[in-house]
Protein backbone atom coordinates (compact mmCIF):
# COMPACT_ATOMS: atom_id res chain seq x y z
CA UNK A 1 0.00 0.00 0.00
CA UNK A 2 1.53 3.32 -1.01
CA UNK A 3 1.81 6.42 1.15
CA UNK A 4 -0.97 8.31 -0.65
CA UNK A 5 -3.41 5.43 -0.20
CA UNK A 6 -2.46 5.04 3.47
CA UNK A 7 -2.97 8.74 4.10
CA UNK A 8 -6.36 8.68 2.34
CA UNK A 9 -7.50 5.74 4.46
CA UNK A 10 -6.20 7.35 7.65
CA UNK A 11 -8.25 10.44 6.86
CA UNK A 12 -11.34 8.28 6.23
CA UNK A 13 -10.85 6.47 9.52
CA UNK A 14 -9.81 9.49 11.57
CA UNK A 15 -13.18 9.45 13.36
CA UNK A 16 -15.48 6.54 14.30
CA UNK A 17 -17.28 5.10 11.27
CA UNK A 18 -20.02 2.58 10.54
CA UNK A 19 -18.25 0.11 8.28
CA UNK A 20 -19.56 -2.70 6.08
CA UNK A 21 -17.08 -5.31 4.84
CA UNK A 22 -18.14 -7.40 1.84
CA UNK A 23 -16.19 -10.32 0.29
CA UNK A 24 -17.11 -12.19 -2.91
CA UNK A 25 -19.87 -14.69 -3.55
CA UNK A 26 -19.10 -18.26 -2.41
CA UNK A 27 -16.49 -16.95 0.03
CA UNK A 28 -13.38 -19.08 0.55
CA UNK A 29 -10.76 -19.07 3.29
CA UNK A 30 -9.07 -15.91 2.06
CA UNK A 31 -12.35 -14.02 1.71
CA UNK A 32 -13.53 -14.98 5.20
CA UNK A 33 -10.13 -14.69 6.89
CA UNK A 34 -9.25 -11.31 5.39
CA UNK A 35 -12.72 -9.86 6.04
CA UNK A 36 -12.84 -10.95 9.67
CA UNK A 37 -9.23 -9.96 10.28
CA UNK A 38 -10.00 -6.47 8.99
CA UNK A 39 -13.24 -6.37 10.99
CA UNK A 40 -11.49 -7.18 14.27
CA UNK A 41 -8.85 -4.53 13.54
CA UNK A 42 -11.43 -1.84 12.78
CA UNK A 43 -13.39 -2.70 15.92
CA UNK A 44 -10.19 -2.38 17.97
CA UNK A 45 -9.80 1.11 16.50
CA UNK A 46 -13.26 2.11 17.74
CA UNK A 47 -15.28 1.68 14.56
CA UNK A 48 -18.61 -0.14 14.24
CA UNK A 49 -17.71 -2.83 11.69
CA UNK A 50 -19.71 -5.75 10.31
CA UNK A 51 -19.00 -8.44 7.70
CA UNK A 52 -21.74 -9.20 5.17
CA UNK A 53 -21.21 -12.22 2.90
CA UNK A 54 -23.34 -12.82 -0.20
CA UNK A 55 -24.10 -16.46 0.66
CA UNK A 56 -23.16 -19.24 3.04
CA UNK A 57 -19.61 -20.56 3.35
CA UNK A 58 -18.04 -23.95 4.18
CA UNK A 59 -18.33 -25.47 7.63
CA UNK A 60 -14.55 -25.90 7.89
CA UNK A 61 -14.22 -22.09 8.06
CA UNK A 62 -16.86 -21.51 10.73
CA UNK A 63 -14.42 -21.73 13.65
CA UNK A 64 -12.63 -18.54 12.54
CA UNK A 65 -13.03 -15.84 15.22
CA UNK A 66 -16.04 -13.67 14.45
CA UNK A 67 -17.90 -15.99 12.06
CA UNK A 68 -20.91 -16.06 14.40
CA UNK A 69 -21.36 -12.31 13.82
CA UNK A 70 -21.32 -12.51 10.01
CA UNK A 71 -24.52 -11.45 8.23
CA UNK A 72 -25.40 -13.77 5.33
CA UNK A 73 -27.15 -11.72 2.65
CA UNK A 74 -29.10 -14.60 1.09
CA UNK A 75 -30.59 -15.49 4.49
CA UNK A 76 -31.24 -11.99 5.86
CA UNK A 77 -31.31 -9.59 2.92
CA UNK A 78 -33.23 -6.85 4.72
CA UNK A 79 -30.79 -6.48 7.63
CA UNK A 80 -27.73 -7.04 5.44
CA UNK A 81 -28.76 -4.33 3.00
CA UNK A 82 -29.54 -2.00 5.91
CA UNK A 83 -25.98 -2.39 7.23
CA UNK A 84 -24.51 -1.75 3.77
CA UNK A 85 -26.62 1.31 2.99
CA UNK A 86 -26.19 2.86 6.44
CA UNK A 87 -22.41 2.39 6.35
CA UNK A 88 -20.26 5.49 6.21
CA UNK A 89 -17.40 3.45 4.70
CA UNK A 90 -17.61 0.19 2.73
CA UNK A 91 -14.70 -2.21 2.22
CA UNK A 92 -14.83 -4.80 -0.58
CA UNK A 93 -12.35 -7.63 -0.12
CA UNK A 94 -10.95 -10.35 -2.37
CA UNK A 95 -12.78 -9.24 -5.52
CA UNK A 96 -12.41 -6.33 -7.94
CA UNK A 97 -15.58 -6.46 -10.03
CA UNK A 98 -18.95 -5.82 -8.35
CA UNK A 99 -20.50 -8.70 -10.30
CA UNK A 100 -18.39 -11.05 -8.14
CA UNK A 101 -20.48 -10.09 -5.13
CA UNK A 102 -23.53 -11.95 -6.43
CA UNK A 103 -26.88 -10.69 -5.12
CA UNK A 104 -25.09 -8.08 -2.97
CA UNK A 105 -24.16 -6.19 -6.15
CA UNK A 106 -27.54 -4.43 -6.27
CA UNK A 107 -26.98 -3.10 -2.73
CA UNK A 108 -23.39 -2.05 -3.47
CA UNK A 109 -24.59 -0.18 -6.55
CA UNK A 110 -26.73 2.00 -4.26
CA UNK A 111 -23.88 2.90 -1.88
CA UNK A 112 -23.05 6.59 -1.58
CA UNK A 113 -20.33 6.10 1.06
CA UNK A 114 -16.65 5.81 0.05
CA UNK A 115 -15.65 2.29 -1.01
CA UNK A 116 -12.19 0.87 -0.28
CA UNK A 117 -11.12 -2.12 -2.38
CA UNK A 118 -8.46 -4.53 -1.11
CA UNK A 119 -7.77 -7.27 -3.64
CA UNK A 120 -5.08 -9.23 -5.49
CA UNK A 121 -6.90 -10.37 -8.66
CA UNK A 122 -6.01 -9.15 -12.13
CA UNK A 123 -7.79 -6.38 -14.08
CA UNK A 124 -9.49 -4.40 -11.28
CA UNK A 125 -12.60 -2.41 -12.15
CA UNK A 126 -12.77 1.27 -11.27
CA UNK A 127 -15.60 1.35 -8.73
CA UNK A 128 -13.79 2.21 -5.49
CA UNK A 129 -12.78 5.54 -3.97
CA UNK A 130 -9.53 3.94 -2.82
CA UNK A 131 -8.15 0.92 -4.66
CA UNK A 132 -5.43 -1.16 -3.01
CA UNK A 133 -4.75 -3.74 -5.71
CA UNK A 134 -1.62 -5.87 -5.98
CA UNK A 135 -1.64 -8.96 -8.18
CA UNK A 136 1.75 -10.06 -6.83
CA UNK A 137 0.30 -10.70 -3.37
CA UNK A 138 -0.27 -14.25 -2.15
CA UNK A 139 -3.68 -13.42 -0.73
CA UNK A 140 -5.98 -10.63 0.32
CA UNK A 141 -5.24 -11.64 3.92
CA UNK A 142 -1.57 -10.76 3.42
CA UNK A 143 -2.72 -7.43 1.97
CA UNK A 144 -4.84 -6.74 5.06
CA UNK A 145 -1.70 -7.31 7.16
CA UNK A 146 0.12 -4.78 4.93
CA UNK A 147 -2.84 -2.41 5.26
CA UNK A 148 -2.69 -2.56 9.07
CA UNK A 149 1.09 -2.08 8.98
CA UNK A 150 0.79 0.90 6.60
CA UNK A 151 -1.56 2.56 9.09
CA UNK A 152 1.09 2.13 11.80
CA UNK A 153 -0.83 -0.47 13.78
CA UNK A 154 1.10 -3.72 13.32
CA UNK A 155 1.77 -3.89 17.04
CA UNK A 156 -1.93 -3.99 17.95
CA UNK A 157 -2.58 -7.17 15.96
CA UNK A 158 -4.02 -9.60 18.49
CA UNK A 159 -4.68 -13.35 18.43
CA UNK A 160 -8.09 -13.00 16.78
CA UNK A 161 -6.72 -10.91 13.92
CA UNK A 162 -3.69 -13.20 13.62
CA UNK A 163 -5.79 -16.38 13.42
CA UNK A 164 -8.07 -14.85 10.77
CA UNK A 165 -5.23 -13.62 8.56
CA UNK A 166 -3.21 -16.82 8.95
CA UNK A 167 -6.23 -18.87 7.82
CA UNK A 168 -6.65 -16.65 4.77
CA UNK A 169 -3.00 -16.86 3.78
CA UNK A 170 -2.81 -20.62 4.42
CA UNK A 171 -5.76 -21.42 2.17
CA UNK A 172 -4.95 -19.05 -0.70
CA UNK A 173 -1.33 -20.18 -0.95
CA UNK A 174 -2.19 -23.89 -1.02
CA UNK A 175 -0.43 -24.32 2.33
CA UNK A 176 2.40 -22.04 1.11
CA UNK A 177 3.22 -24.04 -2.03
CA UNK A 178 1.92 -21.69 -4.73
CA UNK A 179 4.38 -19.46 -6.60
CA UNK A 180 2.77 -16.33 -5.12
CA UNK A 181 4.20 -17.34 -1.72
CA UNK A 182 7.23 -15.12 -1.15
CA UNK A 183 9.80 -14.67 1.58
CA UNK A 184 7.71 -11.69 2.67
CA UNK A 185 4.69 -14.01 3.01
CA UNK A 186 6.66 -16.24 5.35
CA UNK A 187 7.80 -13.26 7.41
CA UNK A 188 4.19 -12.09 7.71
CA UNK A 189 3.11 -15.57 8.76
CA UNK A 190 5.92 -15.77 11.33
CA UNK A 191 4.76 -12.49 12.84
CA UNK A 192 1.17 -13.72 12.94
CA UNK A 193 2.29 -16.84 14.81
CA UNK A 194 4.20 -14.65 17.25
CA UNK A 195 1.02 -12.63 17.75
CA UNK A 196 -1.09 -15.68 18.59
CA UNK A 197 -2.02 -17.54 15.40
CA UNK A 198 -2.33 -21.23 16.29
CA UNK A 199 -0.78 -22.52 13.07
CA UNK A 200 -1.06 -26.26 13.73
CA UNK A 201 -4.63 -26.01 15.02
CA UNK A 202 -5.67 -23.85 12.06
CA UNK A 203 -4.30 -26.41 9.63
CA UNK A 204 -6.16 -29.22 11.40
CA UNK A 205 -9.45 -27.31 11.49
CA UNK A 206 -9.29 -26.52 7.77
CA UNK A 207 -7.82 -29.68 6.26
CA UNK A 208 -8.49 -32.50 8.73
CA UNK A 209 -12.26 -32.35 9.15
CA UNK A 210 -13.27 -34.56 6.23
CA UNK A 211 -16.51 -36.52 6.25
CA UNK A 212 -16.88 -39.97 4.66
CA UNK A 213 -19.17 -38.37 2.06
CA UNK A 214 -16.47 -35.88 1.03
CA UNK A 215 -13.86 -38.62 0.65
CA UNK A 216 -16.29 -40.71 -1.39
CA UNK A 217 -16.92 -37.66 -3.58
CA UNK A 218 -13.16 -37.21 -4.00
CA UNK A 219 -12.93 -40.85 -5.08
CA UNK A 220 -15.66 -40.24 -7.64
CA UNK A 221 -13.86 -37.11 -8.91
CA UNK A 222 -10.53 -38.93 -9.30
CA UNK A 223 -12.26 -41.82 -11.03
CA UNK A 224 -13.67 -39.30 -13.53
CA UNK A 225 -10.29 -37.70 -14.25
CA UNK A 226 -9.34 -37.51 -17.92
CA UNK A 227 -5.64 -37.15 -18.74
CA UNK A 228 -4.60 -35.57 -22.04
CA UNK A 229 -0.82 -36.11 -22.18
CA UNK A 230 -0.51 -34.47 -25.60
CA UNK A 231 -1.60 -31.19 -23.95
CA UNK A 232 -0.05 -31.80 -20.51
CA UNK A 233 -3.59 -31.36 -19.20
CA UNK A 234 -5.94 -33.22 -16.86
CA UNK A 235 -9.58 -32.49 -16.12
CA UNK A 236 -12.24 -33.76 -13.73
CA UNK A 237 -16.01 -33.72 -14.10
CA UNK A 238 -18.66 -33.94 -11.39
CA UNK A 239 -22.31 -34.07 -12.36
CA UNK A 240 -25.18 -32.89 -10.16
CA UNK A 241 -26.28 -36.51 -9.78
CA UNK A 242 -22.80 -37.47 -8.51
CA UNK A 243 -22.83 -34.54 -6.06
CA UNK A 244 -26.27 -35.54 -4.80
CA UNK A 245 -25.35 -39.21 -4.48
CA UNK A 246 -22.46 -38.22 -2.19
CA UNK A 247 -24.53 -35.74 -0.13
CA UNK A 248 -22.54 -32.73 -1.32
CA UNK A 249 -22.20 -29.81 1.08
CA UNK A 250 -20.72 -26.39 0.32
CA UNK A 251 -16.93 -26.60 0.34
CA UNK A 252 -16.71 -30.36 -0.29
CA UNK A 253 -14.99 -29.94 -3.68
CA UNK A 254 -12.45 -27.41 -2.37
CA UNK A 255 -8.98 -28.39 -3.60
CA UNK A 256 -10.12 -31.21 -5.90
CA UNK A 257 -8.83 -29.38 -8.98
CA UNK A 258 -5.28 -29.40 -7.61
CA UNK A 259 -5.00 -33.20 -7.82
CA UNK A 260 -4.42 -32.97 -11.56
CA UNK A 261 -1.27 -30.95 -11.01
CA UNK A 262 0.19 -33.68 -8.79
CA UNK A 263 0.62 -35.82 -11.91
CA UNK A 264 4.04 -35.78 -13.55
CA UNK A 265 4.20 -33.48 -16.60
CA UNK A 266 0.70 -32.06 -16.08
CA UNK A 267 0.75 -28.25 -16.29
CA UNK A 268 -2.97 -27.48 -16.68
CA UNK A 269 -5.70 -28.89 -14.43
CA UNK A 270 -9.42 -28.19 -14.57
CA UNK A 271 -12.56 -29.28 -12.76
CA UNK A 272 -16.06 -28.96 -14.20
CA UNK A 273 -18.88 -29.08 -11.63
CA UNK A 274 -22.54 -29.06 -12.61
CA UNK A 275 -24.87 -26.71 -10.74
CA UNK A 276 -28.37 -27.58 -11.83
CA UNK A 277 -30.02 -24.85 -9.75
CA UNK A 278 -28.03 -22.10 -11.49
CA UNK A 279 -28.09 -23.85 -14.86
CA UNK A 280 -24.32 -23.68 -15.27
CA UNK A 281 -21.16 -25.72 -15.20
CA UNK A 282 -18.85 -24.10 -12.65
CA UNK A 283 -15.20 -24.35 -13.70
CA UNK A 284 -11.94 -24.02 -11.76
CA UNK A 285 -8.63 -23.72 -13.61
CA UNK A 286 -5.13 -24.27 -12.22
CA UNK A 287 -1.73 -24.20 -13.91
CA UNK A 288 1.97 -24.36 -13.28
CA UNK A 289 4.59 -22.11 -14.79
CA UNK A 290 3.75 -19.26 -17.16
CA UNK A 291 0.54 -20.61 -18.70
CA UNK A 292 -2.11 -18.03 -17.75
CA UNK A 293 -5.41 -19.60 -16.76
CA UNK A 294 -6.63 -16.06 -16.06
CA UNK A 295 -6.33 -15.23 -19.77
CA UNK A 296 -7.78 -18.60 -20.78
CA UNK A 297 -10.80 -18.20 -18.48
CA UNK A 298 -11.43 -14.61 -19.61
CA UNK A 299 -11.18 -15.51 -23.29
CA UNK A 300 -13.39 -18.59 -23.27
CA UNK A 301 -15.38 -19.13 -20.06
CA UNK A 302 -16.64 -15.76 -18.72
CA UNK A 303 -14.13 -15.85 -15.88
CA UNK A 304 -10.74 -14.77 -14.65
CA UNK A 305 -8.55 -14.61 -11.58
CA UNK A 306 -4.80 -15.11 -11.30
CA UNK A 307 -2.13 -16.37 -13.67
CA UNK A 308 -2.14 -19.83 -12.08
CA UNK A 309 -5.62 -19.97 -10.55
CA UNK A 310 -8.89 -18.80 -12.06
CA UNK A 311 -12.56 -19.59 -12.32
CA UNK A 312 -15.20 -19.54 -15.01
CA UNK A 313 -18.54 -20.93 -16.05
CA UNK A 314 -20.40 -22.46 -18.99
CA UNK A 315 -24.09 -22.48 -19.79
CA UNK A 316 -23.72 -25.51 -22.05
CA UNK A 317 -24.21 -29.10 -20.93
CA UNK A 318 -21.34 -30.96 -19.29
CA UNK A 319 -20.63 -32.93 -22.48
CA UNK A 320 -20.75 -29.81 -24.65
CA UNK A 321 -18.58 -27.86 -22.18
CA UNK A 322 -15.84 -30.48 -21.94
CA UNK A 323 -15.89 -31.04 -25.73
CA UNK A 324 -15.46 -27.30 -26.28
CA UNK A 325 -12.66 -27.20 -23.71
CA UNK A 326 -10.73 -30.04 -25.34
CA UNK A 327 -11.19 -28.48 -28.78
CA UNK A 328 -9.65 -25.23 -27.51
CA UNK A 329 -6.47 -26.92 -26.27
CA UNK A 330 -4.95 -27.37 -29.70
CA UNK A 331 -4.39 -23.63 -30.06
CA UNK A 332 -2.50 -23.64 -26.73
CA UNK A 333 -0.43 -26.76 -27.40
CA UNK A 334 2.89 -24.94 -27.74
CA UNK A 335 2.34 -22.96 -24.53
CA UNK A 336 1.37 -26.08 -22.59
CA UNK A 337 4.43 -27.95 -23.83
CA UNK A 338 6.87 -25.47 -22.27
From TrEMBL:
Gene3D superfamilies: 3.10.310.30, inorganic pyrophosphatase (n-terminal core) (3.90.1640.10)
Pfam families: DHH, DHHA1
DHHA1 domain mapped to chain residues: 251-332
TM regions (residue ranges): none
GO MF entries: nucleic acid binding
All residue ranges annotated as the DDH domain in the record: 18-169
InterPro entries: DDH_dom, DHH_sf, DHHA1_dom, Oligoribo/pAp-PDE_c-di-AMP_PDE
PANTHER family assigned to the protein according to its UniProt record, in alphabetical order: BIFUNCTIONAL OLIGORIBONUCLEASE AND PAP PHOSPHATASE NRNA
Name of protein: Bifunctional oligoribonuclease/PAP phosphatase NrnA
High-level lineage: Bacteria, Pseudomonadati, Bacteroidota, Flavobacteriia, Flavobacteriales
Amino acid sequence: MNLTQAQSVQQLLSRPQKIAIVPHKNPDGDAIGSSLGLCHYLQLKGHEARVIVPNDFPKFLKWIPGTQEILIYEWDQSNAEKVILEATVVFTLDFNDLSRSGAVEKSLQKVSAPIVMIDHHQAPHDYASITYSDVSMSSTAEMVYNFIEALGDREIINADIANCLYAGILTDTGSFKFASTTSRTHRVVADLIDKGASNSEIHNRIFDTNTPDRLHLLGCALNNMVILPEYNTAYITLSQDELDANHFRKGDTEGFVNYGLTLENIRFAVIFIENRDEGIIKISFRSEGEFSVNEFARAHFQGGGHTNAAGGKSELSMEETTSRFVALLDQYKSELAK
